[in-house]
Every structure is written in structure tokens, then in C-alpha cells.
Amino acid sequence: MSDSSLKRLVIACGGTGGHLFPGIAVAEEWTKRGGEALLLISEKHIDALASEGYGHLRFERMPTVAMPKLVSLKMPGFIFRFIGAFFSCRKLLKSFQADAVLGMGGFTSTAPLMAGQFMKLPTFIHESNAIPGRANRLNARFARTILVGFERCVPYFGKGKPVKVVGTPLRPSLVEKMDRAEAAAAFDLDPAKKILLVMGGSQGARRLNELVASGLPEFEAAGLQVLQISGPTDYEAAKPAYEANPKAGTLISFCGEMQKALAIADLSVCRSGASSLTELSHFEIPSVLVPYPFAADDHQTLNADIFSEAGAAEAWAQGGLNEENFAPRMIELIQNEGRLATMKKAMGSLAVPDASGRVCDEVVSAL
Question: Can you name the CATH fold of 174-349?
Fold first, then answer.
């Protein structure tokens, strides 16, 4: 098989960390093979935050063009903006001399994929979740090949185009696992104590943040420590709880060095976005998954089902959690050494460490 040397790949991956981080992972692998990559991101603040530290990669911002409902007064404006985005993408693909286009999901991918198809370039989409969202159902129309993270997702794309299971790419910065003591020191935590990692994804999870903050006195009393990544929006709301319970753990709004946070977690509680699950499986972290109940097509519940059915995680419905039962349940689980060991082994069995390479192989095979 030929390599990616001197080939130029455009990766549309903006909007959320779940699209951006796997896109960065593919770009890193592509450039390592000798190719050039151009990452298209949105104008959202979270994209700017998440792309920090990757100065060696080329990013271009695109206006966010979210598709409204078909019967909506916003539709004419959307069509006008989308046409503009299409022509901008076509111009960008020409100037970059793109050889292929990969969309990582979301409507940020639609215009680049359509422009790539118009220019007769090989086009691909990647779907990380167990069920494709509205955007990727549309994006699939402009893709020659569909790449998915989970086998369970394959039937949703029908039989009209090739669908390949490749896993979800993991950022290179997360591949090498750090020393626990060194990583704990970065967050002013004691590596000898159990550590609960709380993640809400790149944009946070308000209800999880509220439940964890309310349980800090109980966690501290049980001898546990919490590392809570609140997301920028909820940081100020969660801060008073840590000021009142300074020995309970550490609160940060965003984590640019997730390899350190993942290296110290004995148990994680988080949403069940596919990118987070990829990271947890690589680090073999037993987890409590609380799917976002309003996610499109309830895809987070379907993601969580894959991990809970394998014994790698427990799936807890958000509606069944409150300030009285959340902390006791978490404490009971994190103190159950046998249960954690079983979950850890199962979590590791779900990891796909070479997903970035698999994606690149599929693109190369079409060039």
C-alpha cells in the first residue's frame, strides 16, 4: 500500500471536542507519515481552547452553519450562509491542493465534503458514536467511504457505500501513560489516595457538576479526592464548593493535558461521548457513565450501553440521581476493589489503539 507522503488531507473537525480531538489525532498520524494536513474548525471558543498546543498543525476557522429544522423561518438564512460556506471551502481546497477530504462529524463537515465531492476528490466521514447524528446522515451522501468507531453503528448507513469499522482516533499526547505520582503533583493531589475524575466533555455537564459539588463533604470524609473538569461555563458555579472543602480535591475549567488527568483516575464519572470513551478505554479506567439525556437520537445512551454490557462501566440515568444518593453510590463503587478490577480489565478490552492509523490507511487506499 502506498503511503501518505506529499499527499494533502483536509480534515473538517470543528464544533466539539468529540470531533476536534479525533481529527487532530488523524492529522498527527498523517503528518508523521509525511503528508500535509489542514484542519477546518469552527469559530467557537471551545475550538480555540482545544487547538492550543498544536502550533505545528495548520488550522483554518470556518463560520458555524448549523442546520435548522426543515420547516423553520431560519432555513432561508441557513441556505444563504451554506452556499457561501460551500464556495469558501471549494476555494480553500483548491488553494491547499487537497487530495482528499475527511469529515469528523457535525455540520462543520458538510460544506467541505460537498466541495470535495464536487471536485471529484475522495471523501470520507467518521462517525464515533453508536448511532449517526443528523449531520452525519446528511454528510454520508457526500462521502465515498464511511468510517465508524463501533460495529453497532454499521447498519445505520445501509448498504449503498462501504462502511469500515476503524475505532475512534486517540490524540498522540494521550498514547503514552504517565507516572501516577508525577501526574498527581500537577493537580496538587495525593497519589496515595483514591481519585475520582469528573469529566463533562469539552463543554462541561452542568448536572454532573452540581451533583459532584454537592457531594464534596462526603467524598472528603471518605478519604477520596476529586479532580473535576467542569468546563468553562460551570467553573464559577462549582468554585465555592471547593473553597468550602479545600481538601476534597481540585477544580479546573479545562484540561489541556488530559494524559495527566487520566493517569491518576481510579474511577471516572462522565458523559458518554465517544471521544471520552476512547480515552477511558485506552487508560483502562472503570467508569460511571451518565448519558446526556437530551443528546440527539439518545446516542450517548447507546454508547454507554456498549460499555456497560461489556462490564467496563456502569450506566446511571441522570433522572435517577440526586444530591442525596449520588455521593454514597460513588463512594460505594470506588471502595469496591474487586468490582473496579473487573471493570478495568473489561475497559481495556474495548480499546482500539491504532484507530488513527486505520483511518489513514483507508484514505491512502483511495488515493
Answer: Rossmann fold (3.40.50)
